[in-house]
Each structure stands twice: as structure tokens, then as C-alpha cells.
Design goal:
Blueprint (H helix, E strand, L loop, with lengths): L1 E6 L3 H12 L4 E4 L13 E3 L8 H7 E5 L1 E5 L8 E4 L5 E4 L1 H14 L3 E3 L3 E7 L4 E6 L6 E11 L6 H5 L7 E10 L7 E5 L7 E5 L5 E7 L5 H12 L5 E9 L10 E3 L15 H14 L8 H24 L5 H11 L1 E2 L13 H8 L13
Parallel strand pairs: 1-2, 1-11, 2-8, 5-13, 6-18, 11-17
Antiparallel strand pairs: 3-7, 4-7, 5-6, 9-10, 10-11, 12-15, 12-16, 13-14, 14-15
Helix pairs in contact: 1-3, 1-6, 6-7
The structure holds flavin-adenine dinucleotide.
Length: about 375
Amino acid sequence: MYDFVVVGAGPAGSRFARRAAEAGREVLLLESGTVGEPLACSGHVSTDIWEYVDDEAVARLRQNRVYGARFHVDGPGSRSYPFYKREPVSNVIDRVGLDRTLADFAAEAGADLREGHTVVSVDERDDRVVVEASLGDGGETERFEARMVAGCDGPTSRVRRALDLPEPDELLHGVLGFDPESDASDFVDVHLTAPTFFAWRIPRGDAGVEYGLAAPPSEDVSGAFDRLTDAYGATTDRRCSGAIPVGPPARTTSDRGFLIGDAAAQTKPFTGGGILYGMRAADVAASVVDPEDPTTLDAYESGWRDELATEIRLGKAIRRCYSLPRPVQRVGLRALSGEIGVHMDEPSSFFSASNLRSLFSRGSPPEGKGRGD
Ligand SMILES: Cc1cc2nc3c(=O)[nH]c(=O)nc-3n(C[C@H](O)[C@H](O)[C@H](O)COP(=O)(O)OP(=O)(O)OC[C@H]3O[C@@H](n4cnc5c(N)ncnc54)[C@H](O)[C@@H]3O)c2cc1C
């Protein structure tokens, strides 16, 4: 019997599998398709991402360095309000490559990684969990037993449903498209034009330019995406979409199961980004959950909230600003834009000494950085 069966080899599942295997646990990591595919993510992350991979991967996965964001209350060509640092704030990365790298680390640490295994049922018993996986269209299935199950199977988690755990507050619908023309410029553009969220343009170096938009699924997300690319005069050759969970459920653990990553809505409410929050929660789980002792799940439930709940709460407050009247947004953006000292994953860093110093000692932006239109 395995100690843990981990469902889903995204960043959260692979990170947890790696850390648990390194701690000497017997880990089975099941992935429904091929690791990393299909793509449904911008891969725009803070530079903290490099703490999770080795030096070789940094050069291979990095597509562009980003120094800041130009916010626009309206569409392309409208006045922009730049927020920037003098060093890179974030990186744009090859997301498919990241998933492959993290899954390989898990396998090298000893996790039993099986692709092409779609988990179709989870039966939680007194002393174990029994998980059944489908091996393809032929109807063939395989059963596995473990002391615990980790649901790392993304925003529409099947494990979450099987364990009867509550749903996230909200699922947004995100759409992406890519223009192949290369662009290694320093700024992403953010347009506060999508209902309750935003649209974006991300320069991805030789990988081209990404356009994207997210909004509640009740909105015409595809139509809004077309209007965005038309306004930029861009032609996108590939399009993909995915769900973005916002607002973690009140409970993410059951008797012998727990959720990590998007399955637990461990995302930034103001960007939808969840790669790093999910991996931080995975590290908490690997350090506190003992598969022989289900009572340790309580330590995970409180531990990941200690790590992320304040940032998520502040992130929700930032997101509320996306729905303010436009004149109010303009005043706020004008007041706050300029050089910043905030960490993009930590809204609480707005109150840090480095950000307050930046706010109150603003000079001209360096050449080529942060000049508004
Ligand atoms: C349009 C869009 C843009 C985004 N941009 C960013 C960004 O720029 N930066 C950022 O940090 N985040 C971004 N995100 C969010 C980010 O993609 C997620 O937060 C992140 O992927 C969560 O990782 P995860 O491991 O929890 O889940 P996932 O990455 O979704 O991984 C879940 C894995 O489980 C597998 N799986 C699902 N069901 C089963 C099953 N039944 N059996 C076996 N395997 C299963 C899936 O195939 C998948 O590999 C974006 C999301 C969207 C939709």
C-alpha cells in the first residue's frame, strides 16, 4: 500500500509528491493525460519560482523578464498607469516545461509517476483510500490503495467532489491566445475592462505575445477576448481556456484526504495566479501530514491558511477595486502608480518599508521603464 496517492501532476501535485518522497514516503502520482498538457496558463510568475527548480531549468524555462505592469482603465491605446521596479518583478515562463520539470523531480525523488491515468473514483475507508483510475478509452481501469489521497487535480477537482468537500467561492473563465511575433519588452499591460476582472497582454520573448482575459462564466468571455485582440490589431493563432478558482472553501481536508493548489482555490484573487501559492501549500502538507496519523490533517488545514490566508484576504480587497467606477479607478491609479516595492505574490508587502519608501520618494522612472503613454 502507498502512503499517498496524489491525483494530478500539476505544480501542486508534483511538488507535494517530490517533497513527500524525499521525506521517505511511498508516493503514487497519477496524471490523467501527458504532464503539462493541454496548456491553460500564462506562466507569469514572481521570480520566487526559481526556488523550486535547479539552475539548468532556469535558462530553459525563462521566456522573458518583466519589470512592471501598465494599468489601463480602458482598452488598448488609452492612458496607462505604470507600476514598476528597477529589477525584474516577474518572469514569463514555459508553463508546459515547468510542469514536466517538476514532475521529473518528483519521479527522481522516488514517486511512482503514471501518466494516462484518470482517477474516476475515490473511496475513503476507515484505514485506507481506494482509488480507481481509467487507463483510456478501452474501458480498462486499475485500482490503487493508499493511506491518504491528495487531491491536486485542479479547479474542477473530482477528488474534492468524491470527498464531499465544499466548492471554491467562484470559478472564473480565462481565455488565452498567442500572436507569434516576438516581443521581449519589459511591461505587461492590464486592462480593467473585463467584468470583475481584467484583460492582459504579455510579451513572451521569442514565444510571441499572449493576449488573455478572465471574467465570470456568465459573461461573454470569448466575445470580450475578440474585442481585445481586435483593438490591439493582433492575430492569435492558438487559443486555450481554463477555469480560475477564487476563494478557498471553508474546509480542504477530510478523514483521509486533502486538497492542494487550485483544487483548494489557493490562488491570488486579484490575478488568478496559483502556481506559487499551490507549491507553498504543498510544502506545508509534506512537512506536517503523517499518512499513519489522520489527525495531522488538521495541521495542514491550519498550516496552509497561516501561510496564505492573509494574502488571499488582501488580494480579494484589491480585486474589489476592479469594479470601482472608472473615475475613482483613475484617481487611485494616478496616486499609486510609479516605482513600487511590493512583492507580486504578497499584497501585505504594500505596507513594507521598501514599498512605503518607494511611495514617498518617487523620482523619474529610469530610461525606458515605466513611462506612461
Ligand atoms: C487562463 C489562465 C491563465 C493563468 N495564468 C497564470 C499565471 O500567469 N500565473 C499563475 O501563477 N497562475 C496562472 N493561472 C493559474 C494556474 O494555471 C493554476 O493556479 C495552477 O495551474 C494550479 O496548479 P495545480 O497543480 O493546482 O492544478 P493544475 O495545474 O490544474 O494541475 C492539475 C493536474 O491534474 C490533472 N488531473 C485533473 N483531473 C484528474 C484526474 N481525474 N485524474 C488524474 N489527473 C487529473 C490535470 O491534467 C492537471 O495536470 C492561470 C490560469 C488560467 C486558466
